[in-house]
Amino acid sequence: MALGQQRSRNKPVITGAMQALDQFKYEVASELGINPEYQSGYWGNISSRECGSVGGHMVRRMIAAAEQSLAQQLQSGQKPSFGLEPDAQQGNR
After folding, report:
1. What is the pLDDT of residue 93?
2. What is the per-residue DSSP string for the chain?
3. Phi and psi (nearest 5°) for 52?
4. Cβ count near 16 (within 10 Å)
5. Distances in Å between the alpha carbon of 60 and those of 25, 29, 55, 66?
6. Are 28 and 57 in contact (CB under 8 A)?
7. Is 0.90 topped by the overall pTM?
8. What pLDDT sits at residue 3?
9. What pLDDT does 53 receive?
10. Are 32 and 57 in contact (CB under 8 A)?
């Protein structure tokens, strides 16, 4: 399937997050030197191992960013916000 034509039931919690995640995915794939065929938007010729490494690196970087954000909040004396409050999520849909 071409880019943007995936049939996924997953819905982003934050509006506009899918575009940012797609951009992040391509950035990580480029950094890892994955087969450049993915640039067409079709990942079918990319091995499962390569796709998994892209996802794994994305998760590692997102966790590192969240940890850094929490550490900065604690250093500044703010109460850590995890974004798990139901009211906060409802407003972003």
Report:
1. 44
2. --TT--------SSTTHHHHHHHHHHHHHHHHT--GGGGGT--TTS-HHHHHHHHHHHHHHHHHHHHHHHHHHHHTTPPP--S--HHHHHHT-
3. -65, -35
4. 9
5. 12, 14, 9, 10
6. yes
7. no
8. 52
9. 94
10. yes
Number of residues in the chain: 93
Average pLDDT over residues 3-31: 80
Give the tens place of pLDDT for each residue, 35-83.
Answer: 888 888 888 888 999 999 999 999 999 999 989 988 888 888 877 766 6
Q: What angle do helix axes 17-32 and 48-75 make, rounded to 10 degrees?
A: 120
For the chain, the distance separating the N- and C-terminal CA atoms, rounded to the nearest angstrom, is 26
Please give the C-alpha separations between residue 26 and each of 45, 46, 49, 72, in angstroms, as whole numbers.
15, 13, 16, 28
Find where tokens 């794939």 sit: 29
